[in-house]
Amino acid sequence: MPQLQYPKKVVLGDITVRDGFQHEEKFFSTDAKLWVLEESILAGFKRLEVTNFGNPKRMPQFKDADELFKRLRNSKRVKHLLDDVELTAITIRERAIERAINARKEGYGPDRVLVMVSTSESHQKVNSGIGIEEYFKMCEEWFPKIKDVGMKICGTVSTIWGCPIEGPTDMRKAVEFTKRWLDMGADDVEHADHDGSAPPNKVYEYFSMVLDAIPDPTKHVAHFHVTRGWGLANVLAALLAGITHFEGTYGGIGGQPANFVDDTPVGGTGEYYYRDPSIVGLVCMEDMVVMMDEMGIDTGVDVDHVLRIGRMVERIVGRRLRSECVRTGRIPKEMTGRK
Q1: For 110, phi and psi rounded to 5 degrees?
Q2: Residue limits of the Pyruvate carboxyltransferase domain (predicted)?
Q3: What is the structure's pLDDT at 338?
Q4: Which among 89, 92, 94 has a CA at the least distance from the CA of 52?
Q5: Neighbours of 307 (CB within 10 A)
Q6: What's the confidence (pLDDT) of residue 313?
């Protein structure tokens, strides 16, 4: 009988505390963030995004960036596990990169930093304040300094399947940018569908092109948003193309940095470019883990622990989130006795 062919082992990165919380219009305590990070490590995650070292006046969700890193590095609950865990900070511009380098020198900083380029000039300027070529030039100047302190670099490519500002984009440009990041010294590339523009057939087509050009699957991370509900379909399409590294958030939260936090308007990255900012978010980690487990894929994480974390994240955020599996649970493997 014909069967789908896909990788049987994957690496999952949890990015709830950074990408998930950044779109929420209230500040979450450092205690809450630390709990999510610790529990994720205890559940088996080896890759986590901790914070954003960008301007806290524009993104106050990250005003505790240094404190959070220090507390995580010194956590009695997980300190013995951190040698096998890769902690990432977002560093879009020079000041953020400099902060990460200084934190690293002081012994508590990230293992990996993430820089971000869009194939759309308009989206690039909204995200970083400068154009594409100027941004690449900036990164060329900073990459050696990042490497000198022993940090890895992830170069994100965004607006691969479309831009919320300009509309359709050319996927071939994203493949070119992927090569450019790796040639510059990036350790891996995050391929991001930040606004949920990617249909599954185009996801398969794109990642097939990427793996033809750069066959090493460890160099590629798939990052899908579910603005239009296609998240897990896109995960499957990427799996079928041969991708092995994925990201998600508990409850499927996340999106553009909030421009209103607690009771105060803030800069964020400007006006929301979503039609309805309440429905954006990433692939739901709980549902992705359960789906992969049912497919016989080794995710390296404890499925039941992930579901417990997901239920608690709903309490932290204060509302019902997108996960179906935190309600339905895993598929029973034996008779339950229920009628």
Answers
A1: -70, 160
A2: 10-307
A3: 59
A4: 89
A5: 23
A6: 98
